[in-house]
Specification:
The chain is α+β, with helices and mostly antiparallel strands and about 160 residues long. Strands 1, 2, 3, 4, 5, 6, 7 and 8 form an eight-stranded antiparallel β-sheet that branches. Strand 6 and strand 7 form a beta hairpin. It is globular. The two termini are about 30 Å apart.
Amino acid sequence: MPYFAPLTWASTPSLDDMDELTEDVIDFLSEGTRTAKLGYVAADGRPLVAPVWFIVEGNQLVFNTGKQAAKGRALSRDPRVVVCVDDQHPPFSFVQVQGIAATSEDPDELLDTATRIAARYVGADRAEQYGRRNGVPGELVVRITPTKVIAGFNVAD
């Protein structure tokens, strides 16, 4: 049986617990093209995780998904979610957002958010193309309002 040495920290990482997105959390979430990992509950109660492209809008995380996709169906049953975004490079950081998801099928909002999300991940030159492709009937705008936010910045320092 392999032996795993206990995990020790050179110093205790700072984990901040809050219920809204602070400026430093928004900056972290908005940096580059980090993909969020969305946790949600399947119809049979299994926990599921899926990657999502997202943007921060005010105090909410916003992404698109298909209404009939697993995520869309799950959120219509149970809007409780968790999102984790991390920086996998030393000194390592992460933000976890627990919250409630609300969905919209408004066509103008859908096209707008799909285009802005695309601009973040594929660039401004292709944003309109991706926005038109993803901002269509059958898709949802999902807005997560935080109920709890946990942030750990520079945890290896």
